[in-house]
Amino acid sequence: MRASSLHGAGLGLRRELIPDLKADRSAAIDFFELAPENWLEMGGSRRRDLHHFAERRPLVAHGLSLNLGGPAPLDEQFLQRVKRFLDEYRIDLFTEHLSWCGDDGHLYDLLPIPFTGDAVRHVAARIRRTQDILERRIAIENASYYVAPAIAEMREIDFIRAVLDEADCDLHLDVNNVYVNSVNHRFDPRAFIDAMPAERIVYLHMAGHYQEAEDLIIDTHGAAVIDPVWQLLDHTYTRIGTRPTLLERDFNIPPLAELLPEVGQIRQMQTHTTQRHARACGNPECPPEPLSIGVRRADWIPARAGMTEGELCHAA
Ligand SMILES: [Fe+2]
User: What is the DSSP letter of 99?
Assistant: First the structure.
């Protein structure tokens, strides 16, 4: 099994930021995330840009349009193209939204999947097929949603857990989405994170949002991360150990210099988490990071099942 080089704090590879990113010599960003839909089979300067960044940092592919929860047949031709792209750029991790985006699959409007047993089986079969075609484990991202699905047989927590088990895939935990949903649907975000299977969490997102009203948040990715979401990230790291974590910024994109402090804050929190734990257990290399990212399903060993920070510890 090849250990993934993915670690630390990352930023989205957005076209607006490319000149700043090329000029940046700070080494503040450990990896870049991109939407394969925006980069597949590009030629000319786009291709040269992609090679430039792929030679310098690991890349993560975060899909927009696979429509895992939708009724239309899975676009297997598209997945074959994604597979070639991932192989060419040695991308271990592909993640997608646990949602659906309309019948034609390209509305880019992510809707919640009904939390039912039928939906678990439907989406899990599509995830398994995706993993077979990509020849990688994939991670699914918990989505933000505003109207609870009309037909629900279970809570969102139970739905996500059931899909992960049935599909045998990993979780891309968006910490801001947990916070947004906890305000809009009134639940305890820490309890939600504690209920997620830590051994399957391979990747995190952090983002800002727009507070429309006291009890309504819109998940815009268009502002700085707020303190309660930083606190929730700290809770997550304390609970499960650190994971590669991306700062999402998709709208109102400022110059890179304004984003780097937030990327730096992620990295600082990761360092503090590792140091705090190492002090407690006396082993400077503890806790280990779970580096099963993207490995073929047959090679995956759930050696750290039920892992919490304490259980990860060599001395525990
Ligand atoms: Fe996200």
Answer: S
